[in-house]
Write a structure and sequence with these properties.
Largest sheet of chain B: 2 strands, antiparallel
Strand content of chain A: 15-25%
Number of domains of chain A: 2
Low-confidence stretches of chain B: 1-7
Order of helices and strands of chain A: HHHHHHHHEEEHEEHEHHHEHEEEHHH
Shape of chain A: globular
Low-confidence stretches of chain A: none
Number of strands of chain B: 8
Number of helices of chain A: 17
Distance between the termini of chain B: 28 Å
Largest sheet of chain A: 10 strands, mixed
Shape of chain B: rod-shaped
Oligomer: heterodimer
Mean pLDDT of chain B: 84
Structural class of chain B: mainly alpha
Largest interface: A-B, 50 and 36 residues
Helix content of chain A: 40-55%
Helix content of chain B: 55-70%
Number of helices of chain B: 24
Chain lengths: 450, 486
């Protein structure tokens, strides 16, 4: 068993013979230059585990690189544990069996991920796929690494972006004046840390939305629309200050969360409950404690009247049509009469007529003094119902930035486009089929508001 | 940015707290029982109980192995029921929970409402299982260890095992993001529970600590303790011997080998056998009665004790026998004349020759002698006289071993050929079986299965600990639900 385990570990770590040590040294030499060609530091090639992740970055396979790197570290630790255990105990058949199983499992995972990563690298270098065979075997991996790294004929189609430099280039500043009424957003940034790497999802977004405004939120895929809305309502905390009618969304989140109605994109409701019971439970949860049962029922009836749900009040939710489900989903949030109403693609799956009806109802809600923010991918059919538009764009540092906040007409002039969908296209990246003007508009808007 | 910050307005509106929210969700779950067909778990429990009950009914609570097997089967039923009650309940509505959490739902309230609802479901399943297993013929004992009623005690144990498994699955359901993932994890959890129950399979020593993390371990122990497994007969041995009845036993040994075996006191079994005392205190009256009714003794009385013996033979024996040395030296009252001297003179005398050649008797029997001495009369006279006739097997063996005749025949071979059945019949089958079952049960005694109130309550507390631990884990895990929003 020990012999079997040794062979498995040797296959992976190449440390058992002079040949394998030479193979590893050559691989590092090749990889050093390969990383430099992709715009990364060459010395990463010296660090076990980290070099796996960096090569994955060169191949545009970051998430695969994390798994590949972690499994490599896990195997290294397992190897260490086995060596230590062997020196302490002679009776280790069962543990060796388990270790062998784990090593085999990790090797299999690494094999699959190696295929993904080196396939990506082959695509980046635009070379023939048959190179993959040399990449699969750790004893021969040094050959492609040396050739691609040191032969000038092989050049990557793109380099790993220097996000920090890009962020510095596109820096902006500003702030929005806090109002007693309405929504004030002063967002410096919203970051996440993935695999020890900090990523900025949103940056420098400042705005004031007055009460009674219905606002359209536009942006391409990955521009950070949902992240922005979550940051605004305090669900995902950002480095920001958000005030709604004078109340701080972050500091008083537990209290303020009832002042925000967030309607998610998909209908997140229990299909096996009736419409009436769904709304009654929502009322119990969202309305203040001192509201009597009679008042709750009256409010539920009122909301069902507004959204046309009375005829189906005893139906199971799963039996409702797509439009009815949307309206029920909105009703659940509307029941607490929130000051800020946020809707993430409420018209998805609805035809033009139903979507129009829905947006008209939202307009009526806004007219009662509420702030309504809506994400939609088909804005032009209902654009006349909106007061303002927010345009978010992903800049070249892959961060969501504010490219416009203001009136619809102002947006048309600012972007030089009539249709909202054309505005979205203008800020989308080229590889996504857009015009790739995000950086330009972000900087232009920043200068305009400065 | 800071210069724009104004004092935030205070918000005094109060919404429903954790306690009130529990009842909102509990009501919702009761509705789900009807609309979402959660009620289906009850007929499923009945079906499973029926199938298992039919298999275990003949041996559960009857013998040790059947009781252990039955206990394991019942634990499996409980774990299965519990696991499938809740394995999908949270992951299937993860999105809904996320939304409601955002709207002010407390995770603690949500989990606690599930605990209440699942407790009801587990209780119903326990009742159904008990009714169905009784219906198919499982014979439950009447007396319980803790409450006095076995059904109540056993029901509590089954409920706790089912509920603990239910909470464990609830936790798995909070860990899994989708129902597919949950159902993929489930078999591993079940196998872990069954393999590491610690009761049915012999585990490697290093895996023993893992049994402390299984619900099946205290589950199996509590049922085995309540079923008084330790005091159930060990039936496998009887069944094996029954199957071996026709097996032939045989072989050739020498008398010396047998004697060596019986005198070897290093062998604990032989030493025990040798120490065994036989006989006891008897009265002469009892001996006489026994002899009077004994056919063997009647035959013995007809035996000739002397045959063709002359007076000269008797005198010769007295003169030559070492045992008569004292008699020969006895003084007869005449100076220089001892009995020996007198007898020697008589033997040498020609006149005494006809007397010496006279045959005393050729037909004297043991009976005649006994009659002559009036043995019966003497025994009657001393009928109440007690005789201590206690002796050990070892003494008899040593007597035999020291016997010259036996020593002379040490190399004599004895060939034995018999069947296991014949040997058993020699002692009596019932006696052998009950002896072996009792001894095997004593050897299989497990301290963990002691049928004592404190032992049972201890296991119940362990199961309760599992319930609350898994509920706490489920709550903690679900509190991180916001982290998977991206």
């Amino acid at each position: 068993m020990n012999r079997f385990l040794d062979i498995l570990l040797t296959l992976e770590f190449e440390t058992s013979s002079l040949v394998s040590v030479i193979a590893m040294a050559l691989y590092i030499v090749g990889l050093w230059r390969l990383l430099e060609k992709s715009g990364l530091k060459g010395w990463w090639a010296l660090i076990p585990g980290a070099r796996d992740y960096q090569i994955a970055r060169c191949a545009g396979r970051e998430s695969e690189g994390r798994v590949y790197s972690l499994t490599g570290v896990a195997m290294l630790l397992l190897n260490l544990a086995v060596t230590l255990f062997e020196s302490f105990s002679e009776d280790a058949v069962t543990l060796m069996l388990i270790a062998a199983f784990l090593v085999f499992l990790l090797m299999f995972v690494r094999f699959v991920y190696a295929i993904r990563i080196f396939s990506g690298l082959i695509e980046v270098y635009g070379i023939r796929r048959r190179w993959i065979w040399l990449c699969m075997i750790s004893y021969t991996r040094w050959i492609p690494a040396l050739i691609w790294g040191w032969n000038r004929k092989y050049q990557p189609e793109w380099q790993v972006e220097d996000i920090k430099a890009e962020m510095a280039r596109l820096a902006s500043s500003g702030s929005a004046t806090v109002m007693d009424e309405g929504l004030s957003v002063n967002l410096t940034d919203r970051t996440v840390t993935e695999f020890f790497q900090k990523k900025v999802l949103l940056r420098d977004i400042h705005m004031n939305i007055p009460q009674g405004h219905m606002v359209l939120l536009l942006g391409g895929s990955g521009a950070g629309k949902t992240t922005f809305l979550n940051a605004v309502n305090g669900y995902e905390k950002a480095h920001a200050e958000v005030l709604l009618n004078g109340g701080n969304m972050y500091r008083q989140y537990k209290k303020m969360q009832y002042e925000v109605g967030f309607v998610p994109q998909s209908e997140m409701m229990r299909g096996k409950d009736t419409v009436l019971n769904t709304l009654l439970d929502a009322a119990k949860l969202r309305l203040p404690k001192d509201v009597s049962a009679k008042q709750r029922r009256e409010r539920v009836n009122e909301v069902m009247d507004i959204f046309g749900l009375k005829p189906v009040k005893n139906n199971l939710v799963e039996k409702l049509s797509g439009g009815q489900k949307k309206r029920l989903s909105i009703s659940m949030e509307f029941i607490s009469n929130p000051s800020l109403f946020i809707l993430d693609e409420p018209d998805s799956g609805l035809d033009g007529v139903m979507a129009r009806e829905l947006f008209e109802q939202l307009r009526k809600i806004a007219d009662t003094g509420k702030i309504v923010i809506v994400i939609t991918h088909t804005p032009d059919r209902v654009i006349d119902l909106f007061d303002d538009v927010i345009v978010l764009a992903k800049d070249s540092a892959r961060t969501g930035r504010l490219a416009w906040y203001g009136s619809i007409e102002g947006a048309r002039k600012f972007f030089g486009r009539d249709k909202m969908e054309q505005i979205v296209k203008s800020v989308n990246r080229k590889e996504e089929g857009g015009d790739g003007l995000a950086d330009e508009f972000v900087m232009k808007y920043a200068k305009e508001v400065a | 940015m800071t210069e724009n910050v104004k004092p935030t307005r205070s918000i005094r509106v109060r919404h429903r707290g954790r306690g009130a929210q529990v009842w909102i969700y509990f009501g919702k779950l009761l509705r789900m029982f009807v609309y979402q067909s959660d009620w289906k778990v009850l007929p499923m429990a009945a079906l499973i109980a029926g199938l298992v009950g039919m298999v275990i009914r003949r041996r559960f609570f009857i013998n040790m192995e059947g009781t252990l097997m039955g206990a394991f089967a019942m634990v499996c039923v409980c774990i299965w029921n519990g696991c499938f009650n809740s394995i999908q309940v949270i992951c299937r509505e993860r999105d809904v929970i996320k939304r409601e959490h955002r709207s002010g739902m407390h995770i603690t309230s949500y989990i606690f409402s599930h605990m209440l609802y699942q407790a009801l479901l587990c209780l119903a399943q326990t009742v159904v299982t008990l009714i169905v297993t009784t219906g198919v013929g499982v014979q439950y004992p009447a007396e319980g260890t803790v409450t006095g009623l076995f059904y109540v005690d056993f029901g509590i144990s089954m409920f706790l095992i089912t509920f603990a498994s239910d909470m464990m699955s609830l936790w798995v359901s909070t860990l899994a993001k989708t129902t597919t993932t949950a159902m993929t994890i489930m078999p591993f959890v079940l196998i872990f529970q069954l393999v590491f129950s610690g009761g049915m399979l012999t585990l490697p020593a290093w895996t023993e600590p893992l049994t402390h993390f299984t619900i099946s371990n205290p589950g199996l122990k509590v049922i085995a303790a309540q079923a008084d497994t330790n005091h159930r007969p060990y039936a496998t041995i009887s069944s094996m011997i029954g199957k071996m009845r026709d097996s032939e036993l045989g072989g050739t040994v020498t008398l010396g080998q047998v004697m060596d075996l019986l005198t070897n006191e290093d062998n604990p079994t032989i030493a025990e056998l040798r120490a065994k005392e036989l006989g006891g205190v008897v009265t002469l009256g009892e001996i006489r009665n026994a002899l009077e009714h004994s056919a063997t003794f009647e035959t013995f009385k007809q035996e000739h004790i002397v045959e063709n013996v002359t007076v000269g033979d008797i005198v010769d024996i007295i003169l030559k026998g070492d045992e008569f040395a004292n008699l020969r030296d006895q003084d007869l009252g005449l100076p220089g004349v001892s009995l020996g001297k007198l007898l020697e003179d008589i033997t040498a005398s020609a006149r005494a020759k006809p007397l010496l050649e006279t045959q005393i008797s050729h037909l004297t029997t043991v009976g005649d002698v006994l009659d002559a001495v009036d043995a019966a009369g003497i025994l009657d006279q001393y009928a109440d006289k007690e005789i201590d006739a206690t002796f050990s097997v070892g003494e008899i063996v040593d007597l035999l071993a020291g016997n010259e005749d036996v020593q002379a025949r040490r190399d004599q071979e004895i060939t034995l050929k018999t069947t296991v059945g014949s040997l058993i019949d020699l002692v009596g089958e019932d006696k052998v079986m009950s002896f072996l079952e009792q001894k095997a049960a004593e050897a299989s005694y497990v301290k963990d299965y002691e049928n004592k109130m404190e032992v049972v309550v201890d296991y119940w507390l362990s199961l309760l600990l599992f319930i609350f631990a898994f509920a706490a884990l489920a709550t903690i895990t679900l509190e991180f639900i916001d982290k998977d929003k991206r």
